[in-house]
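Troubleshooting: if your tokenizer reports a length mismatch, compare your output against this known-good record of 183 residues.
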Amino acid sequence: MNESNIKELRSLIDRFMEAKTTVAEERRLAEYFSSADTVADDLKEFAPMFSWYASIGHRSDVVEDSPSRREVVVLRQTLLRWVAAAAVITLLFTAGYFLRDYGYERKYEAYKGSYIVRNGEKITNLSVVGPEAERIERDFDERLRHTEEMARRAYEQTRVSMTSGFDMSDPNVRQIVMEYTDI
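Known-good structure output:
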């Protein structure tokens, strides 16, 4: 085989590796590599691969049913995109996990030195103490809000009961009542 044919075969092998060959070109490669005695020495390393390829890829039922090279390339690219997306998502979750832990310590820094006692055991771990302290603060704030609401209602009832005996249609009475009851 002359040098130009070998260059052409090398070009076909490169195109084959990039999944850009046609079925006819692949058959040509398989036929060339099927006879081991005519294969150029620097191309012998590809002989086993193309022999295997020839054994599975040139049956008429396989060739007709198999996807085209372009479909295979598109499938590989799509798969690669999904793998890349999964890798990015995994990286984001991992970074978020470690940043969450860092933020957790900073979030509960105000509670350093605090502890709680459960079942007779002193617990100083901020990941336990911090949420417990926040729960207590929320309960306290809720009770304080409830108490303030009850005081507002009591004030309102007192004001109404104080003014109910007066004639509020009289401007002088109204002014005096307003000054002393903060209406």
